[in-house]
Amino acid sequence: MLKSMTGFGRSEGNTTLGNVAVEARSINHRYSDINLKLPKRLMPFELRIKEIIKSEASRGRIDVSIKLNSTGEGKLELNVDFDAAEQYYRALHELKEKFNLSGEITLQVMAEAREVITTKEELEDVEPYWQEIAPVVRQALKAMDSMKRSEGEVLAKDMRQRLERIRQEIGAVKQRFPASLESARDRLREKLLSLLGGLDVDPLRFQQEIAFLAERTDITEEIVRAESHLTQFAAMLDSQEPVGRKLDFLLQEINREANTISSKANDSESSQRVVEIKSELERIREQVQNIE
Question: What CA–CA distance (Å, rounded) separates 92 from 53?
């Protein structure tokens, strides 16, 4: 089953640390690009959360935001830098004397200096709570994955319909080829007769020219390869593995065969059908850009 790269999932859960809310968003990206926003208390889990994300999504830009409505905070430690305080006091005293300023150098004034009193938060060990956090993260990612699968089904249905149209056009070109070759043969005979001014045409020479013409315009190999690629493409639409890049490669190959068929085509009808084939291929390509 195909998966789109576009999806959203959300989950919440009550843990010992407090209420945890997880939101996961995924959009198109050529490679895997994971962006994770965590509260400071959950930073020790960053690498493990990213591993869970990688296990759920192989490609796309994935933004995961985790919010924690904490029931408790870490301990706050206050430190006084007496050397900085002394330097700050002296500097203020010198300013006061030099410019004859009024006012007292009070505790409030000293406390406003960032360097004098510093804080340090001692966070508790959150390792025991990983088993509570991980299921909430996985639930949001599963919800996102479910949305990606639903959209993937819609894309697969659309592409199957377009593949069938391409098959029909290729079948028509293949069926048209013998008549096209016969028409080219008649045109060649008329041209030779015109150039020779009524003289007899050497049958052997004429057959040789027809053989050269058939070789130059033979599209059998291109048709066979294009049909094979279409079969592979259709089979991959049912794959359980990420196939976006493989589908993109096959589209390039089918388009290459279509270009060759177009260059060899001997009549306007075949050329027009190739135009329709390439038009459908372009529409499929746009869809494949969103496949994981």
Answer: 54
Provide the Cα torsion 202, 207, 213, 218; round to 10°: 170
pTM (two decimals): 0.69
CA contacts within 13 A on the Cβ side of 203:
0
May I ask the CATH architecture of the domain 7-73+126-147? 2-Layer Sandwich (3.30)
The span from the CA of 281 to the CA of 219, in Å, is 19
Provide the residue type at 79 as one letter: N
The better pLDDT of the pair 105, 124 is held by: 105
Please state the separation of Cα 244 from the chain's center in Å: 8
Other Cβ atoms less than 10 A from the Cβ of 43: the count is: 12
Q: Is the dihedral of CA 138, 140, 143, 144 positive or negative?
A: negative
CB atoms within 10 A of CB 177: 22
Instruction: Please state the domain extents for the chain.
Output: 7-73+126-147, 75-122, 149-288
Model pLDDT, residue 184? 66
Encoded tokens for 146: 């479910």
Distance CA 227, CA 218 (A): 16
Whether 291 and 243 have beta carbons less than 8 Å apart is answered as: yes
Residues 6+ apart with CB under 8 A from 266: 180, 181, 183, 184, 217
Buried b (16+ CB within 10 A) or exposed e, 87-96: ebeeebeeee
List the Cα angle 65/67/70 in 5-degree steps.
160
Cβ–Cβ < 8 Å for 52, 24: no
Q: Side chain identity at 235, as an amino acid letter?
A: A
**What proportion of the chain, given as a percentage, has pLDDT over 70?**
82
CA distance 34 to 192: 68
Q: Are 13 and 140 in contact (CB under 8 A)?
A: no
